[in-house]
Amino acid sequence: MTRILSGIQPTGGVHLGNYLGAVRYWVEDQRIGESFYCVVDLHALTIPRDPAELRQETRAMATLLLAAGLDPEACTLFVQSHVPQHTQLSWLLECTASMGELRRMTQFKDKAAKGGEEAARVGLFTYPTLMAADILLYRATHVPVGEDQRQHLELTRDLAERFNTRYGPVFTVPEATIPPPGRGARIMDLQEPTRKMSKSAESDQGMIGLFDEPKVVERKIKRAVTDTDDGPDAVRFDPDTKPGVANLLQILAAATGGDPAEVATGYRRYGELKAATAEAVIELLRPVQARYRELEADPATVDKILRAGAERAEPVAAATLARAMDAIGLLPAR
C-alpha cells in the first residue's frame, strides 16, 4: 500500500511558494493510498517561541490546510505533539544516529552559523532525528520533499536501514517524492529572484502571503524585480539570464495550469505580464481565503478534526514504536 507522510511547521504563516510548491499537491494526492499530514509544532521549538503565539499559529495552520482542501475523510490530519510516540521514537533514533551525521546537516550548519553553534539549541541539532521519527512511525512509503529537505530524508533512510540491519526489519525505508517538471513549482522571492520565497526573508515585499489582500498582491507583483530588457522577446522563460521574469512566468503558469515557456508567448511587455500574474494569483487565493474565514469562525470544528486525526494516527504510531522498542531490547511494560 502507498502511504504518504508530510508535515509543515506552524510558524510565520504560509506563503504562495508553500502553497504552489507543496500544499496544493497534498490536496491532489490525499486519496492516493493512505495519507498522513501533520502540523509539526514540536519542530517549531528549535527557536524561542511565545507560547500563546505558538498555540494560535498551530490551529491557524491546521485551519489553512483544511481551507486549502485537505479532507479529514480522505486523509489523517493531526498535530505532531498530540501523538507522543514522535518524541519517544526520536530518542531511539538519536541513539542510532552519529554526531558526524547530524553535524553534516546543512540546515543546522546554516542556522547555527547565524547565532553561533554554542548558543544553538540542542533541538536544532537533533531536529533531523525527530523528522525521521515523524516519517518512520507511519511506515510511510513516499514522502513529498523539496530540495531543501532531501538531505534529511536521506538521513531518515540511512537510520531506517541501520536500525533494520542491527535489530531486525522494523521500519519501512521511504522513497522521496520529488515533483516532476511542471509540478511543485519552485517560487522565488519577488525582490531577490535568485533565492527561494521564504518566511524568514528580511522584507515581506518579496513574499506573497496566502492571506494578502488583493491590493497587496497586486502591489507586490507590480514592484517585482525584472530587468531593463525592452526588446521584442523580453518576456521569455530564461531562469539563468532573466530570473525575475522567469519567476513571474512560473507563478502565472502554476496558478493557471500552464507551462512557463508557453505562457511567455502571450506577452510582450512586463507590465502586461505583471497584471496577468497578479490577477491569476488573486483568483487562485480567493476561495482558500473565503473557506479559511469560515473555519476560523468555528475553531471547535477544527479542534474536533485534529482530535479525530490524532486518534487515528496514534494506533499506527504506537504499533511501530512497540516493534522498535521490542527489537532494540527494552523490557515491555506489561
UniProtKB/TrEMBL annotation:
Its main location: cytoplasm. Signal peptide: none annotated. It is found in: Cytoplasm. InterPro entries: aa-tRNA-synth_I_CS (IPR001412), aa-tRNA-synth_Ic (IPR002305), Rossmann-like_a/b/a_fold (IPR014729), Trp-tRNA-ligase (IPR002306), Trp-tRNA-ligase_bac-type (IPR024109), Trp-tRNA_synthetase (IPR050203). It comes from the Bacteria. GO terms for molecular function: tryptophan-tRNA ligase activity. It holds the Pfam family tRNA-synt_1b. It catalyses: tRNA(Trp) + L-tryptophan + ATP = L-tryptophyl-tRNA(Trp) + AMP + diphosphate + H(+). ATP binds at residues 9-11, 17-18, 146-148, 187, 196-200. A motif ('HIGH' region) lies at residues 10-18. Keywords: Aminoacyl-tRNA synthetase, ATP-binding, Cytoplasm, Ligase, Nucleotide-binding, Protein biosynthesis. A motif ('KMSKS' region) lies at residues 196-200. Its EC number is 6.1.1.2. L-tryptophan binds at residue 134. The keyword tRNA-binding does not apply. CDD domains: TrpRS_core. SUPFAM superfamilies: Nucleotidylyl transferase. The keyword DNA damage does not apply. Homodimer. Catalyzes the attachment of tryptophan to tRNA(Trp). HAMAP family: Trp_tRNA_synth_B (MF_00140_B). Belongs to the class-I aminoacyl-tRNA synthetase family. This is Tryptophan--tRNA ligase. It comes from Acidiferrimicrobium australe. The gene is trpS.
